[in-house]
Structure formats: structure tokens, C-alpha cells
Specification:
The longest helix is centred in the C-terminal third of the chain and has 35 residues. The N and C termini lie close together (8 Å). The chain is elongated, with a radius of gyration of 18 Å. It has a two-stranded antiparallel sheet. It is mainly α and 173 residues long.
Length: 173
Amino acid sequence: MTTPHQTAPTVQTLAARLASCIVATQAARAYDTVTVYRPAGPALVVDPAASGALAALTSDLWGNVRCSNWAWAQLYSCLSGMGSHEVTDGEQWQHEFADGCCDVYTQRLIQWLANDDNAIPAIEEAREDGLIGPDADIPAQIMAGQYVVLSRIASIVRGGVEVWLEELTEAEE
């Protein structure tokens, strides 16, 4: 329930909470605690509600597969992007996020290909969806695969945050 001085949660505020939860969770794991005190600011405390929602999101995204650091960075980027501005057109935002986060340097593309279990299936999906032609060079194929993965991340994250918002709204009623 929101108190008079609190505002009702929004997709934007919940995404920001999830982005903070990633930072707090990673820091807490590093120090094997639930609270990490920072000398230059407030303590990072793992938010249990956000942690549960984050666990549901990562399960939807990767299941039981261990995800790469690249995937965590993109998840954080997606959530912090949603938390920094209101998303009015979900499909347009999803395209802009995926397009803006694709690596352009060949070395980073090859690293992603080597380290992400979803890379080859994503490249094949990009080919089937017509995102790349049969004569596309290797970096273009890898980039198209990244676009597919990033689009999926944006779609699942947006849907997950909206579900969490609905759950909170229903709980308040």
C-alpha cells in the first residue's frame, strides 16, 4: 500500500529498482553479505522484492543456463534505460535498445560468439527472420544474432516489469 507521501509504482520506477538490485546483488555476492556499505554514499541493500522479480526475469531470459557477463551487462543496461525515461512505445523502444547495444567491433562480437550459449541459435533465428542475407559477412551475422538476443531481453524485461507492477497494484487493492 502506498502512503500519502509515496507515489504509486510505475514501470519506470520498478525498472530502476531492478537495475539497483543488480548492482546491490553483485556487490553483496562479492562481499558475501546482504548489505554493502559504500564510503561515498548510502549502503547498498539487496531489495527482497526486487530480488524476487529479478530472479523471475533471469529465469524467463536464461532458464537454468549460466549467463555471460555480457548478458548481465545488457540486462542492467536495459533496466537502467527503462528506469531513466518513460517508455511509451514498447516496440520502438525495444528496437532502439537492441540496435543501440549491438557491438560494432569485430573483437567484441567474436568474444560474444565464443562466450554466449545463445549466440549460434540467435544467429540462425536472425537468418530465418530475414535480418541478414545469405551473403552477409561474419561480423554482420554475429551482430544480427546480438540484435535478436537484445530484442528478446528488452521484450522479456518490459513484460516482466509490467507483470510485477500489476502484482503490486493488485496487492494494494
